[in-house]
């Protein structure tokens, strides 16, 4: 195990909410052994490491390749969400600074009368959302629904679709799509 191995074990143990004593108890090794490994004072045998990792849903390969440090950018304040606006529709993207996002999460506001356009949208992936305030008309594959606060949607984005605010007040929603389209 390299010099970061002890830190990796500590990060995993902490992420799972276990104390050193609890991990030792679950894995059948001594508390002192866990402590020494985490301090990089001893390097466990493969057998010992496998016993310890049996306390988690993790293989040896995952232990050596998983990054448990976590990103620094976990919380995103409203004022820091960039507006990817298109006309009368405001799109505020969560985690825009993340290089390898697996999805797009948006806080969206459709002004009264705002519309994604007469040309229906189509792209790879899936998308879903929840209406927070106002009303929004959703059209997917030729069928339309008017959604109000608390209503939600989820569909295959390859189907032709469109969003319109047919109401007189702004429509607010939170949506997600994968793979990221923004």
* Helix residue percentage: 10-25%
Shape: elongated
- Order of strands in the sheet with the most strands? 1-2-8-3-6
- The CATH superfamily title of the largest domain: Jelly Rolls
Number of DSSP E strands: 8
Characterize the main sheet.
5 strands, antiparallel
Q: Structural class, from helix and strand content?
A: alpha+beta
Ranges where pLDDT stays below 50 over 5 or more residues in a row are: none
What Rg do the Cα atoms give? 24 Å
Q: Write down the overall mean pLDDT.
A: 88
Q: Write down the domain tally.
A: 2
Strand content: 25-35%
CATH first level of the largest domain: which class?
Mainly Beta
Number of DSSP helical runs: 5
Distance between the termini: 40 Å
CATH topology of the largest domain: Jelly Rolls
Q: What is the CATH architecture assignment of the largest domain?
A: Sandwich
Write the element-wise H/E pattern from the N-terminal end onward.
HHHHHEEEEEEEE
Topology:
Elements: H1 5-15, H2 20-27, H3 31-38, H4 46-53, H5 60-65, E1 89-94, E2 104-110, E3 126-133, E4 135-140, E5 143-148, E6 152-156, E7 161-164, E8 171-178
Helix pairs in contact: 2-3
Notes on the protein architecture:
The model has no long low-confidence stretch (mean pLDDT 88). Strand 4 and strand 5 (143-148) form a beta hairpin. Helix 2 (20-27) crosses helix 3 (31-38). The chain is of the alpha+beta class. The chain has 5 helices and 8 strands, in the order αααααββββββββ.
């Amino acid at each position: 195990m390299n010099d970061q191995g002890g830190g990796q074990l500590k990060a995993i143990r902490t992420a799972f909410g276990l104390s050193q004593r609890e991990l030792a108890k679950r894995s059948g090794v001594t508390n002192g052994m866990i402590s020494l490994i985490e301090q990089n004072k001893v390097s466990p045998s493969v057998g010992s490491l496998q016993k310890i990792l049996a306390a988690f849903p993790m293989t040896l390969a995952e232990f050596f390749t998983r990054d448990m440090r976590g990103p620094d950018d976990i919380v995103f304040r409203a004022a820091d969400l960039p507006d990817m606006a298109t006309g009368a529709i405001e799109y505020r993207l969560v985690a825009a600074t993340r290089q390898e996002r697996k999805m797009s999460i948006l806080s969206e506001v459709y002004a009264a009368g705002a519309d994604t356009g007469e040309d229906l949208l189509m792209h790879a992936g899936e998308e879903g959302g929840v209406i927070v305030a106002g009303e929004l008309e959703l059209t997917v594959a030729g069928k339309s629904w008017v959604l109000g606060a608390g209503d939600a949607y989820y569909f295959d984005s390859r189907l032709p679709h469109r969003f319109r605010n047919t109401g007189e007040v702004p429509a607010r929603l939170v949506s997600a799509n994968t793979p990221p389209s923004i």
